[in-house]
Amino acid sequence: MKKLPEDFIFGGATAAYQAEGATKEGGKGPVAWDEFLEKQGRFLADPASDFYHKYPEDLELCSMFGVNGVRLSIAWSRIFPEGTGRINPEGVKFYHDVLAEAKKYGIKVFVTLHHFDTPKALFDQGDFLNRDTLDAFADYAKFCFEEYPEVEYWTTFNEIYPIATNQYLLGIFPPGIKYDLTKVIACLHNMMVAHARVVNLFKENGYSGQIGVVHSLETKYPASDAPEDIHAAFLDDALSIRFLLDATYKGGYSKETLEALDEICAANNASYDFPEEDFVELEKAKDRNDYLGINHYSSHFVKAYNGENAIHHNGTGDKGTGSYKVKGIGERIYKEGLERTDWDWLIYPQGLYDLLMRIKRDYPNYKAIYITENGMGYKDDFKNGIIMDEPRIDYIRKYLTSVADAIEDGVNVKGYFLWSLMDVFSWSNGYNKRYGLFFVDFETQERYPKESAYWYKHLAETKTIL
Ligand code: NOJ
Asked: Mean pLDDT over residues 156-165, rounded?
């Protein structure tokens, strides 16, 4: 039986576009997703979980079930409908109201400034491939820091790597571009520079509270002992993990990271060009991150691959339909004997332990870590308001045990946020991939605690992983 520290946060995570709904209400400006989803015609981000109206109920549920931390994001286009310039007072007020409600229950709130939802006006100008967006993001961040002194924990970005790759490699996020590694690398780099600029601004202006970034970090292992597979895992890791952690904590890219990048570029006819002055910004920010948020769901086993790019995203929950092969990087394979979800995500808790130990070893200036997302997408069975989601409980138990083991071995992990607090809208899967502690009937917007919610309550009360 493992214990977690007394002051550990047992949280639940959400994001504006996935929870709020009300995409055209309250003066909110458009985001690229609105049109992208309409054209795709499978599902929309309305109603989502109607958090825009139901947040008092969701926060009350938190307090009833021991959830003492919540992750949410501010929708940039609720504050600045066009991304810059005109401010929307209704949007500004909405987040004050949410924060005040959370305060009533003593819930710690982690606020993300950008969770996949750049305002459309800026997105259409190239999103973070356009360097003007970095200025707009810094202005928006500054506005929020001054407007919301009640926020204790700020996060600049959520998941820079999935943004870059889903937008420009897999093409499952708008603008739906596939296999463009030049754009992937430019997006990764520019967003890291934007992060550093905002951290520097935060610290230099002396705002109160803490600031960090949330990275999606999914451990890579070679599919076999063959040197070419070991190298493939190294390349996949370099682009998805090392690149971001180097930028966050080393103030620039290590020699190995750049060598990997050059190799990936050569295989994909891609290139990069990082302006010198960016490294001044990264260098200044590297010891100023108060915490690192880690989103971690899965690990990947990688085999050498030099054929043409071929990715199929399993966005329906038809197990076995996903495939991932990137030229000059590798092929992610399903390892015999390892469980995976219906969306083909490998369940491998050792991956989280290994990742945490590696950060402690390679990036010793990390200060503190929060697991800002972990959880299991599952087709929950709803029987008259009763939802027995044992596989999810089992998943959380195993991953939290890895966290407890890493803490025992000296990693400073201070909290865990289950993705998701309640069932929410999922970007590329719609509504059948459920993650919540609370089941949402998307038609009536009724909430129902799942078995996992009772399990989590006990965990939060006893700090003991049963
Ligand atoms: C990561 C993202 O932050 C979140 O938006 C997403 O829905 C979950 N992972 C599950 O895929």
From this structure: 98
